[in-house]
From TrEMBL:
Highest taxon of source: Bacteria
Pfam families, alphabetized: PDDEXK_4
Species assigned in the record: Methylobacterium phyllosphaerae
Protein name as it appears in the record: PD-(D/E)XK nuclease superfamily protein
Keywords: Plasmid
InterPro entries documented for this protein: PDDEXK_4
Length: 423
């Protein structure tokens, strides 16, 4: 029997433990069936993007679109909004489920990003306008909803117009502007799943099922799947922990690929009168130096940092799934470090902190924000990081070079202006 490393409880994890989980447990088979279906929307990476999700929802709600549902989906959406408004004690402009059922919505207009409002529905003949704000992984701004409401009131403030405001979210969140109706995907998705497509329109049915299935898997709590997960963890905790600890790290793969081409990267960074060379690297930090600075007095007097003994290095660092560009002044001889400290202290990244005795972050910028590892496109992510980090190196070198040359070369005695910090 092949033995794998111990789990967190100290018990050995064996191959047969993983086999019992993956092959022998019917609950795992049920989970695979529920989650293992191909979904075009997930393949297109729209799961957590408010813009693509808003585009899809608006298209399905629009009765003029050729999806085969007519106004059925819009009617269901409005009914759920009215029910949510009543439950929250928020006025619904006289609308009730019955009146929504009887409302002629065939000519309703559905617009995206009208005055920055995610979705705007206008039923001209009924003098009804519905503003919808979506939130996926973000929260409302302090006066965002109030501003949208005032815009709608200004445009549709004439006699007889009814205005409905819907705040659609994944997690419970009270709208700061109290006329907005809080509606969750948890309530909306099951209601939309009950809408029947006209007979014979299989494409429309499949498209809606795929869209709602994606929402359910990622943004709606499924009690049946939660129970399956509970049973699996109760029966296979060690095996599941082993798998979770070894989940593929997309950014780790990106950095491994970048580390293999640091010399090529350095060549691509050249521009604005500066060239760059690769320095000593690690698994989470790729280091580069500005070649034009190597001749500055004291530059090669670093202590216990890299083999090049450079005092000032650009670093591309990996913090989990974030890629961060930095320029650091490292430890060095007292005289040499003092020269660079005098030149660079006014530019340091955190002006509210005193420079450290060994390290000082001169400039810092996040160049890639977190995203799920499975969503990382290795080639595209690598190219994006190279381009953004190269821009950071060039622009930072241009900004700091005059101060370095005037202060370091003259022995730290030159005066220089109070510049804006490098972002």
């Amino acid at each position: 029997m092949t033995e794998l490393p111990n789990g967190p409880d100290g018990l050995p994890i064996h191959i047969d433990a993983l086999e019992r989980l993956i092959v022998g447990d019917p609950a795992f088979v049920d989970l695979e069936k529920a989650l293992g279906r191909f979904c075009l929307f997930e393949a297109l990476n729209v799961v957590r993007g408010e813009v693509p999700l808003g585009n899809l929802l608006a298209a399905f709600l629009d009765p003029r679109q050729a999806h085969g549902f007519g106004a059925r989906l819009l009617r269901t959406f409005l009914m759920e909004a009215v029910r949510a408004g009543r439950a929250a004690g928020i006025g619904t402009e006289g609308l009730a489920p019955l009146s929504v059922h009887l409302l002629d919505l065939d000519e309703a207009e559905v617009r995206r990003e009208w005055h920055r409002i995610d979705i705007l529905v206008r039923v001209r003949h009924a003098k009804l306008v519905v503003a919808v704000e979506l939130k996926i992984g973000s929260r409302q701004g302090p006066s965002q909803l109030e501003g949208y409401r005032r815009t709608v009131e200004k445009e549709f403030g004439g006699p007889g117009w009814r205005r409905l405001y819907v705040f659609l979210t994944v997690d419970p969140e009270d709208p700061l502007d109290k006329v907005w109706i809080p509606l969750r995907y948890q309530a909306l998705v099951p209601a939309l799943e009950q809408v029947k497509v006209p007979a014979g329109d299989a494409a429309a049915s499949a498209a809606l099922a795929g869209f709602l299935g994606m929402l359910r898997r990622h943004h709606v709590t499924d009690d049946a799947l939660e129970e399956i997960a509970r049973k699996l963890w109760a029966s296979h905790r060690a095996a599941l922990t082993f798998l979770a600890d070894r989940r593929p790290d997309g950014m780790r793969g990106v950095f491994a690929s970048l580390r293999d081409q640091v010399d090529e990267m350095a060549g691509r960074f050249a521009g604005l009168g500066f060239t760059f060379v690769a320095d000593q690297c690690s698994t989470t930090s790729l280091r580069f130096a500005c070649a034009e600075w190597d001749g500055l007095p004291g530059m090669m007097e670093a202590v216990k940092w890299t083999a090049s003994n450079r005092l000032l290095l650009f670093e591309l660092k990996r913090y989990g799934d974030r890629a961060v560009a930095e320029l650091y002044l490292g430890p060095g001889t007292q005289q040499a470090r003092g020269l660079f400290l005098a030149a660079l202290a006014p530019y340091r990244h955190r002006q509210d902190l005193q420079p450290g005795n060994e390290w000082m972050c001169v400039a810092k910028k996040v160049i890639l924000t977190p995203q799920p590892s499975e969503d990382l496109d290795l080639g595209g992510t690598r190219e994006s990081i190279i381009e953004r980090f190269g821009t950071f190196c060039r622009e930072t070198a241009v900004k700091l070079d005059p101060a370095l040359r005037s202060s370091v070369v003259s022995g730290g005695k030159a005066a220089f202006p109070d510049p804006a910090g490098v972002s």
